[in-house]
Amino acid sequence: MTASIKGSLNFILVLTMFLSSLNTLSARSTATSIRHLTPQNQPTEIKINDWKLLDVGEVSQRIEEFRKGKAGATLDAFLRKKGYSPGDGQEAFFGVDIFFKGGDGKEAKTSIVLQDYVSYSVSSGGDRAAIAFATASSGDQSSTYSFGLFGDGKTGLEKATEFYVNDQFNVVPAHSWWTCFLGNLNTRCVGRCRAIASCFSAPTFSQFLRCLTNIGICAGSQTLCALGAMACCTCNCNWWCSWACGCCHS
User: Fold this and answer.
1) Which one of 9, 16, 64, 140 has the lowest number of neighbouring Cβ atoms within 10 Å?
2) Closest CA to 200 of 149, 150, 148, 155
3) Contact 136, 234 (CB under 8 A)
């Protein structure tokens, strides 16, 4: 083999390695596009610019503030009447902030904070409960959806019942955020990473969400998909955030 041919082959090899490294860096970049199911007249991708798991202190503080509001206080009283009390310790909390930036400089954020409630009654049979608050904000627009969850100890968390506080401040069953979130997980995320199915065996709601945001599973692909589902269901097709989160009716 002549020296010129060897030189050409070496150049091609170096160029290939360089392009491969660029692809790796691109895959690891902060801004990430995630496909999701939307009507044809809606954006076809969720573009997450950044996200941050919240520490226990931050989650606890936010939940305490929400619990002071009418909806939060009503849900808390409802759960306590059912024999549950707020869980404590690091394992009882989950929280995440998800950030978006548009090409025109617009910004949006969605946040989900959740606290497990526990029952020490023998008759509870391993039932689980939680209180959660999902907030979407962009510009001067903001909305928070407050809800409670009950999981039957005999079935998985995917069978959990959701409750919310209506305009008359009564706690009533809902098919809203949780239904939307699980639906999106099953239709667009499980196919990417079969390991997601193992998260459904988590013993609590907080551990279930932490499992989904474990970047060590499926090289982090399921984390981004789960975060996109959380954000989309939190926005709930509001015009002022659907440009970032897409449209997933809850």
Assistant:
1) 140
2) 155
3) yes
Cβ-proximal residues to 137 (8 Å cutoff; 6+ apart), any chain: 108, 109, 110, 143, 241
CA distance 250 to 237: 9
DSSP-based helix, strand, coil % in the chain, nearest 5: 45, 25, 30
Alpha helices in 82-201 (DSSP H): 177-184, 196-199
The tens place of each residue's pLDDT in the chain, 250 residues long, gives: 554 544 444 544 444 443 333 333 233 233 444 434 333 333 445 678 899 999 999 999 999 999 999 999 999 999 999 999 999 989 999 999 999 998 888 899 999 999 999 987 645 556 899 999 999 999 999 999 999 999 877 777 888 999 999 999 999 999 899 999 999 888 878 776 777 778 888 889 999 999 888 866 666 677 888 899 999 999 999 999 999 998 886 5
CB atoms within 10 A of CB 11: 10
CA separation for the pair 131, 16 (Å, rounded): 51
Per this entry, what is the length of the chain?
250
- Quote the DSSP letter at residue 67: H
Q: Phi and psi of 73, rounded to 5°? A: -65, -40
